[in-house]
């Protein structure tokens, strides 16, 4: 198996059981994260389109504040102090007048728009319109962002719940003896409704899982540990964070996002008071989605390992592929956890796979700047004992630029590692930024490929 290259996820999706559950869950989480980022771009572009109105609203509001405070400085000096002395902003306010010439001209122009009437500061109708329009636009933007974050949070929890439910159904179907006695009973009337015994069995399992899922997150942990006899040490570390995510979701589903006593009792460490509305941010949503994705993925790995010991080779490939995807997304911490799990608890029969897993684990440590762990692990591998593709990887891990450059021609010519591999693999990410390495790579690219690259660059510049 080539280094760092794993099975196609499309093939994984064709499989049943834990493989398919994992695929659906991870793809759903990726879609949510992509959705957040794409919609954020739309919201930002809408905000940019409204920049003129926003600039006017800021300018008028600042002028009103200047008048009310009866500030000694002229207005242009006043807004300069607040870093709002933007020529474009002022020009938009002045429209056809060159109000930038002198402060008095600008003061005269603005005084026609915002002025005192007795003791009251009043604004011309068009000024009030701009300020009111901007306030409405900002409120709409805030409402759109809030709706986006709420829907993603709710969906993240639903996907996590579906993962737990699907895993439990699959496990109980393999071990129906763990179903509680009460749920094994089925009336004659119910039995008549089913065409065969398999349908009745499915009904009993569905009923059992439903009852389990009615419990809290802590209830699920308790069931899995006691009934399935699976230790959940990794979940215990995440328990408080996952509980907080669930309780926050519950507030938005049942209480409009307003903090209540139930939330305060369940989430001990928080910054809210009863009656206050929780404010969701993009960082919080992406963090919550990642936490649920990571916890759900590890649970599935543990259940799969316990139930299907014979699938060890395929399970290794699935999770190695998944860990590599996390590396491509630069989620080094979770990729490290997965690789560490594979090294510690999975049987890896092939030496190349074992070495590949170790190398990827080490580079996760490197990119997280875990120097002590990195130094210890890198010294457990003697790269001189392996062939060229592993030696050049060793040079990359150890930041040995001269040795890396010296080996490049030989390794590219022998096709042990291609130019595409060097340009794409995470392990070479820092070397790709090195000018000497980039120059050497350029020398090794065949002329026709250089022409193709130049065409691509020209196409991008024209578009």
Oligomeric state of the chains in view: single chain
* Counted beta strands: 2
The helix content is over 70%
Question: What's the Cα radius of gyration?
Answer: 31 Å
For the largest beta-sheet, the strand count, sense and barrel status come to: 2 strands, antiparallel
Q: Which series of helices and strands comes N to C? A: HHHHHHEEHHHHHHHHHHHHHHHHH
Given helix and strand content, the structural type is: mainly alpha
Number of helices: 23
Number of domains: 3
User: Which descriptor suits the 3D outline?
Assistant: flat
Main β-sheet, spatial strand arrangement: 1-2
Mean pLDDT: 77
Q: What fraction of residues sit in β-strands?
A: under 5%
Low-confidence segments, ≥5 residues, pLDDT <50? 1-15, 48-53, 80-102, 447-455
How many angstroms does the end-to-end distance come to?
40 Å
Q: What brief labels describe this structure?
A:
463 residues, mainly alpha, 3 domains, two-stranded antiparallel ribbon, 2% strand
Molecular structure report:
By secondary structure, the chain is mainly alpha-helical. It has three domains: 9-45 and 137-307; 51-123, no CATH class; 385-463, no CATH class. The protein has helices at 9-14, 18-49, 51-69, 75-81, 87-94, 103-111, 125-174, 181-184, 188-192, 197-213, 217-227, 233-254, 261-266, 282-307, 312-328, 332-345, 351-367, 371-378, 388-397, 401-413, 419-424, 435-444, 447-462; strands at residues 114-117, 120-123. Helix 3 crosses helix 5, helix 17 packs antiparallel against helix 18 (371-378) and helix 19 (388-397) packs antiparallel against helix 20 (401-413). The longest helix is centred in the first third of the chain and has 50 residues, at 125-174.
């Amino acid at each position: 198996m080539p280094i760092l290259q794993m099975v196609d996820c499309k093939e994984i999706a064709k499989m049943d059981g834990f493989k398919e559950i994992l695929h659906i869950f991870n793809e759903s989480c990726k879609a949510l994260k992509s959705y957040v980022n794409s919609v954020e771009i739309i919201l930002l572009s809408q905000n940019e389109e409204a920049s003129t109105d926003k600039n006017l609203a800021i300018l008028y509001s600042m002028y009103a504040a200047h008048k009310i405070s009866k500030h000694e400085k002229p207005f242009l000096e006043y807004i300069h102090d607040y870093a709002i002395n933007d020529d474009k902003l002022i020009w938009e306010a002045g429209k056809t007048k060159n109000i930038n010439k002198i402060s008095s001209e600008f003061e005269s122009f603005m005084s026609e728009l915002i002025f005192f009437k007795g003791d009251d500061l009043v604004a011309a109708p068009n000024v009030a319109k701009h300020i009111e329009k901007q306030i409405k636009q900002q409120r709409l933007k805030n409402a759109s962002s809030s709706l986006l974050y709420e829907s993603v949070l709710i969906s993240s929890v639903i996907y996590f719940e579906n993962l737990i439910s699907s895993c439990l159904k699959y496990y109980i179907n393999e071990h129906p003896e763990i179903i509680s006695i009460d749920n094994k009973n089925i009336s004659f009337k119910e039995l008549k409704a089913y065409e065969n015994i398999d349908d009745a069995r499915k009904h009993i399992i569905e009923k059992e899982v439903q009852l389990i899922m009615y419990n809290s997150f802590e209830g699920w942990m308790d069931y899995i540990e006691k009934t399935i006899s699976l230790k959940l040490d990794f979940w215990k570390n995440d328990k408080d964070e996952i509980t907080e995510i669930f309780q926050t979701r519950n507030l938005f589903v049942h209480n409009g996002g307003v903090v209540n006593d139930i939330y305060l009792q369940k989430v001990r460490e928080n910054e809210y008071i009863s009656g206050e509305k929780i404010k969701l941010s993009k960082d919080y949503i992406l963090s919550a989605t990642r936490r649920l994705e990571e916890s759900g993925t590890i649970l599935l790995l543990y259940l799969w390992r316990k139930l299907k010991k014979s699938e060890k080779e395929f399970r290794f490939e699935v999770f190695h592929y998944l860990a590599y995807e996390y590396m491509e997304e630069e989620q080094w911490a979770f990729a490290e956890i997965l690789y560490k799990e594979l090294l510690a608890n999975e049987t890896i029969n092939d030496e190349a796979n074992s070495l590949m897993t170790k190398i990827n684990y080490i580079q996760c440590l490197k990119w997280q700047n875990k120097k002590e762990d990195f130094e210890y692990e890198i010294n457990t591998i003697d790269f001189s004992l392996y062939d060229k593709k592993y030696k050049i990887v060793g040079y990359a891990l150890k930041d040995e630029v001269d040795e890396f450059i010296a080996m490049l021609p030989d390794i590219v010519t022998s096709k042990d590692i291609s130019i595409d591999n060097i340009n794409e693999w995470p392990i070479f990410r820092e070397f790709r930024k090195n000018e000497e390495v980039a120059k050497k790579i350029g020398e090794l690219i065949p002329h026709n490929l250089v022409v193709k690259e130049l065409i691509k660059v020209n196409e991008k510049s024209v578009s």
